[in-house]
Structure formats: structure tokens, C-alpha cells
Amino acid sequence: MTLRHAQGKKYLSMKKNNKNIKKVLILGSGALKIGEAGEFDYSGSQAIKVLKEEGIKTILVNPNIATIQTSKEMADEVYFLPINAKFVEEIIKKEKPDGIFLSFGGQTALNCGIELFNKGILKKNNVQILGTPISAIILTEDREKFSAHLNKINIPTPISEAATTLKGALKIAQKIGYPVMLRAGFALGGQGSGIASNPSQLKSIAERALAFSPQILVERYLHHYKEIEYEVVRDKKDNCITVCNMENMDPLGIHTGDSIVVAPSQTLNNEEYHELRRASIDIVRSLGIVGECNVQFALNPRKLEYFVIEVNARLSRSSALASKATGYPLAYIAAKLALGYDLTNTKNKVTGVTSACFEPALDYVVIKIPRFDMDKFKGADNQLGSSMKSVGEVMGIGRTFEEGYQKAIRMLDMDYESATDEKIFQKKSAIIENLKNPTPKRMFTIAKALKDNLDIKKIYKLTGVDPWFLYRIKNIVDHEKTLSKTKKLDKDFLLELKQIGFSDKRIGELVGKTGLEIRKIRKSLNITPFVLQIDTLSAEFPAKTNYLYMTYNASHNDVESTGNKSVIVLGSGPYHIGSSVEFDWCSVNTVQNLKNYNMKSIVINCNPETVSTDYDLSHKLYFEELTFERITDIYEFENPQGVIVSVGGQTPNNRAKALYKYGVKILGTNPENIDKAEDRSKFSALLDKLKIKQPAWNAFSTLQQAEKFAEKVGYPVLIRPSYVLSGSAMNICFDKDDLIKFLNEAALISKEYPVTVSKFFQKSKEVELDAVAQNGVLKTSVISEHIEYAGVHSGDATIVLPAKNIDELMQSKMKDIAKKLSESLDITGPFNIQFLVQGNEAYIIEANLRASRTFPFIAKVTGVNLIKLFVDSLFQKNIPTVAIPKLKFTAVKVPQFSFARLTGSDPILGVEMASTGEVACFGEDLEEAYLKGMLSTGSRIPEKGIFISIGGDKKKQDFIEGARYASLLGLPIYATENTSKFLKENGIKSTRLYKIYDHKSPNVIDQFQNKKIDLVININEYKDTKDAFKIRRAAVDSNIPVMTKIKTAKLFLKALNEKRFMDLEIKPWSSYLGK
Amino acid sequence: MVGKLILEDGTEISGTSFGHLEGVSGEVVFATGMTGYPQAFTDPSFYGQILVMTYPLVGNYGVPDKKLWESNKLQISGLIVSDYINTPSHFESKNTLSEWLIKEKVPALEIKDTRFLTQYLRNKGTMLGKIKFGKPVEDFDPNSINLVEKVSLKKVSKSGNGNPTASSGRGKTIVLIDCGAKRNITRCFLERGVKVITVPWDFDPFAKGVGFDFDALFVSNGPGDPKKVTKTIATIKKSLENKIPTLGICLGNQLLALAAGGDTYKLKYGHRSQNQPCLLEKSNRCYITTQNHGFAIGEIPGDFNPWFVNANDQSIEGIIHKSLPFMSVQFHPEATPGPKDTEWIFDYFLEKL
Ligand SMILES: Nc1ncnc2c1ncn2[C@@H]1O[C@H](COP(=O)(O)OP(=O)(O)O)[C@@H](O)[C@H]1O
Ligand SMILES: Nc1ncnc2c1ncn2[C@@H]1O[C@H](COP(=O)(O)OP(=O)(O)O)[C@@H](O)[C@H]1O
Ligand SMILES: [Mg+2]
Ligand SMILES: [Mg+2]
């Protein structure tokens, strides 16, 4: 007490920002990956905004080309280079910044910062670390030292000890007693962590963890504690506030990133809330944080007892969520504080009059639900645990828990219409099992259990989900039961249903009507949602904020409709495989360009990781569902000029047809024509009419027909259901057996749609054409080329711009096709065509009449922003055609995979997309750009040994050039039996390793674990073997980069031969573009 | 059961009852705190008021044992929430909120748009109003009477024996004038080793023959207009004359100002929240505080300096004498509900004894 008071008196006259700082280096977080996603584009963008406001020059290092922070309008200089000490040191030497921001780029930036500091690079170059002192960061990252520190200031942590070897870990576990929690130091997203109930489980977790981290912590496992987080802000004058607290609905043990999270906490009473708040503030003060910090707690549900789980001394996924949940821009404030401002002389941006030194009061609840895409990863384990697996998230806002919760469930955009889902879990025993072992579908298991009248106490015991939440879900279930029974839709009951978040469609399903019919009934009864503001102060002060949501638990609107001078822009929804930050870039660019035409933008999106949901950006932001129902609610309230559906990826694109039919004005290509491209039969008929070639295909509803077709066109064939993005349930069949097996699988996935079978082109080039047309006239088009042969999903492919191996003739052929399509579909707006090139012919795989994932890449490489052209095309009569400038450099887009986090998943590439993110790098030539790209996505320059295993004679022959490059590197080469023989025949020396099942040494696995190998090349035969999978997986689990495609492996090895580190030019983006 | 909230200007809002089914009149005010409703509802400063909670979900953790309340009963006259939760979950919960309200005869309504009501009160200012279930309800303006009289204890009571290991207040004796004191104030003193003699609002500890000595005077929080509490003001005047260290909280802050020659006024809609930022004068230190008041100091008495100022609306949040140990704060350093950031005020004061 006296101590805090003394601090209270220790005031100095304040100086605003540190005047010596004129140039600041910001480290980004690189490609999106599980555990480190879009939230860091948001935080970095906010930091840049602050620096610009202060007139400070900004240098950004981030190879993630799809981000908004790497746009022209943002940082003064951008380096699309790997975020590691080696590259950043060169950038520092070149740019000579005065200061560096380490806390806006996630764990990647933090780790890089620590390395720069430890190597003395910052000191040597006089670069000041702004914000939280590095000593605090280092302390929080070392789990053992940190725990000792906390205990010193009387903050409890679970009993734990650190180990650096497996043996050590076993000994500690013996002492603490099983089950124990294992956690890796210096890692994120719970990587390498897990719960071990016995020594053998411990062994397998510890081995994996030690491959990634030098240290593991063995800790008491806190079964079914509540997991609570606080977001804390502190300034250099020691003012300290907690902006938001959050409660996980899932118990401790499920990573917060994978947990359903509510803000504010629901089940904490005053004492608990403030005890944890006080502890958070004590911790943050003891560390001397300047800026933002996240504290995670385990709270005993049975008595007042808590433990600190961890502290993140940086902006985080949770801080982005907290910013969106409260309207308090944490990253913005953190950047201000890092520059020397105090909380007391910073204003609350939402009210404009009140102080930033306050704690938001909410008059709504938010519910975050993570989005998983486990089905996209072959073999991946579905079980949720302490290691993060989700790929995105949504946030539902409501004035009842049920309202926000059901919104969030629909926001996931996975065809869930409500908190209950009848389709899964028929048997009671399965329910018990599923309650005990949570999966991404646990919400529905709980609802089903409640429906079956399973006791709440029992459900609690099995799941660890606090009864408070179970009662709320039960309320939803009970209402459904009543509705199903009575089918009554009087005004009071219908309103009640809407107040607890039921959609029109769901109500319709339960009474045997369509959603539209319910909508009509509802409107005739005068039941409509109202628009409320998120104002940080629960209406205590007037706020001009444009940050909005809709609710049925109100009877007035906080704002007025914008009217005709406005346009609704539909955002991307949750990030998932196939739809990511690139669509946020497109949305944000649309909003920015609408300003050129004095059009007020109204953004609808529900993804808290995005920049498009930064309320500063648009005229109005609706943090809302991208469902037909909600879009039309907003449309009817706002009366805008129209809706843009073509910049947010597939989700908004999928809404086009229904919106159009309802009478919504869609800006851009007519939705009927969008449908002509989306619907395979219609599209195919169109191509035939236009005499454009396509791989032979047809749709079938029986196996026999499909078989006959496959025989006719010849195997391999590709099978897929229609209307899906990122190749869900797509498969290549090499023979009849495959076909029978896969067809049965596909049929399970989609009953309504017949399965299509196409001729699969082997060894064929794949090419992307991105374009904008206006009133059917092509205005510009860009051609980029995949390195891998077709068969690797375009989202996973390595893409080169400008195209190297597509000659003029072929390019103009493709352009002609684009022209024809523009004309016949009367396109106004962005579109993308994917081609297969075989011989002299170009075949169309598909066309999407919307912005594609390559748009930001193209804009940043060529300087031509297709989104700008699109917006121009909406508001200018006849926009000029734009020629793409000849480029004197090469840019390569390289995918980022997150296989390491998805235990059991196969890291092989195929027609199903699996990458979670991407980078793009520039170079004099392909090799330079590719090498930079590979180093940016976690590959390392091999220094120890290369393991090669190639399936089949043909593929071995194809790889021979690559093998030569490998041998020229002068590193030991290891190979499996046949590959080793083959190499020998070609004069390349290698050590033969036994396959896993041989159980003989030297064995592949041992060599991985002994760290003798730091590059794995595993090219599979058409028909993969189980052992090959095991090798790939073992490599991933041992943290060794794996390459599975001949062409990229060859290119990588070639680049390694031709380029040394010195050859990789450290040049900012602007110097490539010649500005 | 449906009931109505009727404001003095005729505005009517209907809602579903979850409390006692009998109408009541009072002053309608809103509070924005998100946790600690059992503590808030038992805070005597709310006496005579119909409280609107801006945080929509209320009832989540039920009602704890009496000893965890801030007084021995519900003090609010009525309650308005957006979403009443009748399925609490907490190890400390003994009853649902509804059971408690019914037992203590406090009416409560669930109306959906508490935000509208809040905005309305913010724009028009605090208003009188009533909760009605059909039958007429008599008008009542709580500010027309001395509310302190209603909530103050009736007999002198002593607690604490001077905890010898506690720090700042070891062995000292304080007279606590109970104008409707929250229990945690006493707890804060006891924790610091202070003996507390609690006296009724109109008790004069300076009168001859009271039978005890004391080192300092404390004036508590409480409801209503400070100018109505003349007897307590008179006592404080004596304290100042005798140079007895004096500390006031909330109403006590206003009473100290009046006793020392300053003035108070009624705020348009008061401060009832747990996130009020208060700047320590002449510093860059800002504290997050709990507040619950409708009146404030308008004019600082002559020999006093401002001590704290509200960072949002610049209202005076505390005063301190230029040389003597007389001081008071408008906010609640004892918290419950709310942040404990300013508990050091107790130490600061006790160190002056
Ligand atoms: N002692 C423990 N007992 C049970 N679960 C734990 C324990 N420690 C951590 N966890 C769980 O593991 C998750 C990840 O741990 P954390 O230290 O937060 O790692 P990360 O740095 O990946 O966020 C937490 O969110 C929590 O659910
Ligand atoms: N007929 C084909 N021959 C060879 N590869 C193909 C063929 N059709 C599709 N592919 C491959 O499959 C990938 C995914 O197919 P596509 O139809 O584009 O699915 P999505 O709609 O998920 O993008 C393509 O990027 C391409 O590599
Ligand atoms: Mg964590
Ligand atoms: Mg495709």
C-alpha cells in the first residue's frame, strides 16, 4: 500500500514524445500461421498509424505481401524479407533507424528482437528498443525464471520445474505426480505442449517439444480450472489499467486460441475479478511494461485460488480481440506509450472527450468462437488441447449471451444455423465420449446432451464448461423444443426467439417454413433488429462512434441511416484455409478507394483479426454476421447505393445470388452471371459455346456412370463436389479402386450436389490470370505462373511474377479468353481465371468473378492495384485500359504451412489447399526471390545433411538434376534404399538409411532426432505408402523442413548452389518498383 | 408478471418482473459497473434509488452470504436490468438474485432497452420515477428528506482491538460517523490495526462524557443531498476546530467541504461506475475508481487544495487541507465493488495520525 502511494507521489513533469526518435523500424510477424495470424496485421497497422501521426519515418520488415501494413499508404519503406536477425541486421545497417518496435509482430518479432539484442546488434547500431524493456520480454519468455520472479512478488504459479532433456523431464514428472502439463519455452500457440498422464505420453510430447525449444516446463496439471485473461496497459509514469478481462468457456487445458471466449467475464464475482485484476497490475508493474501486456490465469471454480499461466509482453491475438470487444484500440495506445506519451494525456478515441486512462464498461457481451479447418488436413487429430489448432475466429456481439453466441456460431460460415445441430452424434455413448474429449464441434455435443436431458452437473463434470454457460445453452435448447412442439409464432414468442439469437432460417426449419417466410411474418409483426454503438462507456458519455452491431434486445437505434451516398462492402468473415488476410486487403482497399468518389463505406465483417474491422477505417462498421438475413437487415436500414460482394472472397460471393433475388442492388457483375461462372455445368456450356477448351469432365450421380467416363478419358481423374472453395473433398484417382473409394467419401460430404469427374492433366503448367473488366470490356490483366505442376492447389502453389515460361503467344491466347469471358458474362469488376497449359493449348480450370488471393501480390509487384480499377469501374464511365509495366525483377509468392501444429497431419501437397498463409519476396532473378521466400517461411539453409527419398523410377529420373545440385552443396546426403541406389548409379554418394518399418539402424527416424539432417526431400509415388507418410511426419515433428514436389525442391537446391547470403540483396520494396 | 417503469416526465417502459410485486417510488439512476452487484445493491448510498444497470446480464453469480454484503440489507428501492439471469453459478452463491429481491421486498423489472433509458437519463438528467404493477404508487422524492437518517446505525458500536502486526494504523482509534457506511470501510481500517468506534450520523463525539478518546474522525459515504445532513456537518466543524485529523469518503467528502466553507451541487446524472479515472493533482498519476454519487463539490473551501480531479469531466474528486490532516475523496478507496487502486488513501491518512 505504502509502496503504491509512494509511486503515486513520484511524478515528473511529462515530455510528450521522445524527440530523438525520427525513424522507427517495425518488425512484422511474417506469413499467417496457426497461432500467429491476421491480428498482427491489425496491430502493426495501428502502430504505423501512430508513427505517421507523429511524423516519424517508418521502416517495416514483413514478407507477408497480402497484409495491409505492407501497403503503399502505410510504412515509408517496406522490406519483403525474412524476419530474422541476419536479415534485420543488414536492414538496420542500411536504414539506421533510431528506434525499434518489437511488440507488434507477435512471437516472430519478439524472438527476432531478442536475438538482435543478445547479439549486440541493436547496441552497436544505436537502435533504441521502444516500449517494454527487453529485459522484461526476456524474463517472460523464460518460463522457469519468470515463475521464480512471480513467486518473489507473491503471485502464485503452478508447481513446475524446467528440463532440457527427456530424462530430466521424467524425473520432475515423477516428483510432481501425473498428470502433468508440458510446455515449451520460447514458443507460441502452445506449440509442443501437451498433457501427459504417464511416462510414455510424456516421452512422446517431450521429444517433440525439445525439437522446437531448448527448454520444457513440467507443471502441475490444473484440471478444469477456469481460464481467465486480462489485457493490461501501462505507461512509463506507472499508470496501469486493465482494459478488458475475458473468460474462456472452455476450461483450462484447451488453448485460449482454441477456446470459446466471452468478454467481459461472466462467472467471476467482484472479489475474483478484482483479485485477478490486482495481480495483473502487480505483475505488469513489476516487469516495467510500457505498452500492452496479456496475463493468463487459472482460477479455481471451487474456492478463491488462482495461478498465473503465462504473460505475453506484447500485442497478441487476445489483445486484438479485446480491442474489438471493447472499442479500446490497444495497439494504437501501446504505440503511443512506446513513444513516450502517457495514458493521461491520450484521449479515448471513441468518445473524443474522455481520457484513455480508463477501463471500458460494456453494455453488451461478446463471444469469440474459433474456426477450425481440421477436415482440410489429412490425418490431423481432431482433439482439442493445449496446443493451438484453429485457423481463425469470429466474434458475436449481443445483449444476451445467447444472442451473441448464436450469432458467432453462424459467423463461422460452416453451415451451422444455430447452437444446436441435429446432424451429429446419434448415440448417447458417443455423446459422453465427445463431452469428455472436446473437438471443434463440442458446442453441438453440449446442446445435444442438453436436448437429451443429460444432467447439467454431469455435463459440467465431463466438459469443465461452467454450468452458467450450460444453462444459457439450455435456454436455447428449451426454446427450440417449445417451438418444435407448438409451432406457434405469435409476436411475443417470436421476439423472444430473436432476442436469444435465432435466425429466421432456423425458426423456419423448426416450423416447416423458409427463412424468407419467417422474415415476412416477422416484419409484419414489426419485429426488426436495432442498431447500437460500441462506445466504451455504456452510454455514460455521448459518443460519435461508428462502431456498430445489431440486436433485438433494444427498441431504439443509436444512429441514423446513411442513405444513397453510401456503399456496403462485405468483408471476408473468419480466416480459414482458402480465405485469409488477402481478402481483408481487398476489402480495405475498396473502402479506401470509395473515398475517391465521396462514397461513404459501410463495412460488414465479423472477424476480430482484421484491419477492415478497425472502426477508424470506414464510415460505418457493422461487426455483424455475413448472413443473408443480417446483410438485408443492414441494407434495409441503411438504404445504400448498393452492395459490393466481390472483394471479400468466397463468402460474400456466395451471398450474391440470394441478395440479388431479394432485390438488393449488387454493384459490379450481375449475380446471374456470377452464377454462370460458379455453376460448373452452366460454365462448361458457356466455354463450349465460346470454343474455350477445358479438361473433359462431367457430373454424375452414380458410380457406374463415373467409372465409364473415367475409362473413356483415361486415368488419372479428378473428382470434386461443386460450389466449394479450396478443394474440399477433391481427390485424384489413379485407377478404378481409387475412384470407388473416394466417390463413396465424396457422396457422404455432399448429397445435394452430384460429383463431378474431370480428366486430370499430369505434368501440366498452371497459370493464373487476374483481371478487371468494365461493362464486359477487359481493362487489364496480369498473368502469373505456378512453379509446381497442376495438382498443387493454387493456394499452395509457388507463384512467379512475371511469368517466365509462358510465351507471348500463349499469353495473348489467355488474354483473348479473358476478353471473351468478360464480354459474354458482361463482367464489371475483378475476376480470376486458372489455366492449365498443355502443349500449345490453354484449358480453363475455373473462373471466379471476384477478387482472388493474388490481388495484393499483383498490386505490390506490378504497382497496378486491381481493386482501385474495380472501384473506378463502378463510378467512372469508361475507365482507360491499363498496361502492366515490364518488370526488371522477379517476385515469388511462397506458401506457409502449419503442419507442425496439427499432430498427425500429412504435410504433402495436393489438390486440397492446406497452407495457412503466404509471403512474397523480390529478387534479381527467380532463384534469389525464391530463396528469400523459403527463408521467410521457416526453411533454413541446410548445414548438416540432406535426406532424399523419391518414389518411383519416373520421378527419380525427373529429380536427377536436383540430386546433382544437392551433392554440389557438399553436405552428407542420406537416402532410402532405392533412392540411394539410384543416386549411386548417377555417381552421387549417399548414406543409406533404413525405413521406419525396417527397425534397423541407421534408421531415418534416429537421424532426424539426432539432428543430423536439416532438409528432407520426399517425393511420393502416385500411390503413397504409409512409410513415406511416417517419414514426412517425423520430419515435421523434428522441426525439419520437408519438400514434397520435384520442381520446387529442384529450384530450392539450385538456388542454394547459386546464392550465398551476400547475394541476397537487402533492398526495400520502393527500389524494386523504381520509386 | 409485467410491470412498468414510469419516469416523472411521463415516459413509460414496461418490463417483466423478477422481484417483489409491489410498486415503489424513487430516484432513477444508472450505474455502469460490470461486476459486484451484491455489493452495489447493499451500498446504502443507493438508498431511495431505482437503479438501472447498463451491463445487461445481471444475476450471474447469485447472492453470497450476508457477511459479504456492504450492509445488512438491500438498499436499492428498485432494480432495472436488461437480461436477468435466474441460473447463477458460483461456489459462494446462496440464493438467486430474484429470491433475494422478493425476500427483501424490492421490485425489479427486466426491460430490454436499458441503453435507451441510460441515454435518456444522461440527456435529461436524473429523474424521479416509479415501478408500478397496476395499483397506484405514492410519489416520493428521496431528496426532499434526510436520507442519512434512514440508513445510519442507531447505537454506538465498537470494533477491532488494534491488530499489533498491521502496519499504518496500529493501535489508533477512529470515530467513524456512519452516514450509511459500506462495511468494507470498517474492514479497511481494521486490517490496518485501527480500533473503530462507529457512531450514528447525529452523534457528537466531542460532547462531554461520551466515554472514549479518539485520534481521528472519519465521515462515511451515504445517500442524498449533503446539505440535509446538518448535524454531521456541525460535528465535522468541531473536528476541524480541534485540529483532529479528518477523512471523508463520498458523502463524507461533500460534508467536509460544506463544514469547511465550501459548496456542493447536484450533478446532472451523477457518477455511478467502477471506471472513473481520477488524476492526483499535480501529477501524471491517474487512478481507476469506483463511484456512486449524485452530488459533488462545486466550490473548494478556502484553506483546501483540490486533491483529485476527474479526468473525464474535470469534476472535483477530492480535497486536502493546505497544511493540516483534513482530506476527503469523492470516490471509494474501499472499493467493493470495483478496483482497489486507491486503498492507499487509508494508509496515507493513518500515517498522519
Ligand atoms: N498447468 C496447466 N494445467 C492445465 N492446462 C494448462 C496449464 N498450463 C497451461 N495450460 C493450457 O495450455 C494452454 C497453452 O499454454 P500457454 O502457456 O498459454 O502457451 P502459449 O504460449 O502457447 O499461449 C493454455 O491456454 C491453457 O489452456
Ligand atoms: N483437370 C485438372 N488437371 C490437373 N490439375 C487440376 C485439374 N483441375 C484442377 N486441378 C488442380 O486442382 C487445384 C484446385 O482446383 P480448383 O478447381 O481450382 O479448386 P478451387 O475451387 O478449390 O480453387 C487447381 O489449382 C489445380 O492445381
Ligand atoms: Mg497462452
Ligand atoms: Mg482454384
Structural description of this entry:
- The complex is a heterodimer of chains A (1075) and B (353).
- Chain A is an alpha/beta fold and 1075 residues long.
- Chain A contains 37 helices and 38 strands.
- A 7-stranded antiparallel beta sheet of chain A has the order 14-13-10-11-12-15-16, sandwiched between helices. In chain A, strands 31-30-27-28-29-32-33 form a 7-stranded antiparallel beta sheet, sandwiched between helices.
- In chain A, α14 (428-436) packs across α15, α23 (650-662) crosses α24 (671-678) and α26 packs across α27 (736-749).
- Chain B has helices at 37-41, 97-103, 114-124, 148-151, 183-191, 230-241, 251-259, 344-350, and strands at 2-7, 12-17, 24-31, 49-53, 57-58, 78-81, 83-84, 108-110, 127-132, 157-159, 173-178, 195-200, 216-219, 246-249, 263-280, 286-299, 304-310, 316-321, 326-329.
- In chain B, β3 (24-31), α1 and β4 (49-53) form a beta-alpha-beta unit.
- The structure holds adenosine-5'-diphosphate (ADP) (2 copies) and magnesium ion (2 copies).
